[in-house]
Design goal:
Length: 70
């Protein structure tokens, strides 16, 4: 597993299955506890930093290659 370098997000998946409403600001105490727990687990498990591309526009990095294969 690798650490993602983007900001943390928090969703209520029971009420918001499509992850449209990030609750990170409204539930900051819960988010802080989860982040602390995750960071402790990641340190214990030797999780590496994410070396891959910043996927803010999913698929853009592969579209040029796929476009030439018509």
């Amino acid at each position: 597993m690798q650490k993602w370098h983007g900001p943390w997000e928090l969703y209520d998946l029971e009420a918001d299955r499509t992850e449209r409403h990030n609750l990170i600001e409204q539930q900051s105490e819960i988010a802080s506890r989860l982040e602390t727990a995750w960071n402790a687990w990641a340190a214990h498990s030797f999780v590496d930093d994410w070396p891959g591309p910043d996927h803010t526009n999913w698929g853009q990095d592969i579209r040029p290659a796929a476009a030439g294969k018509k």
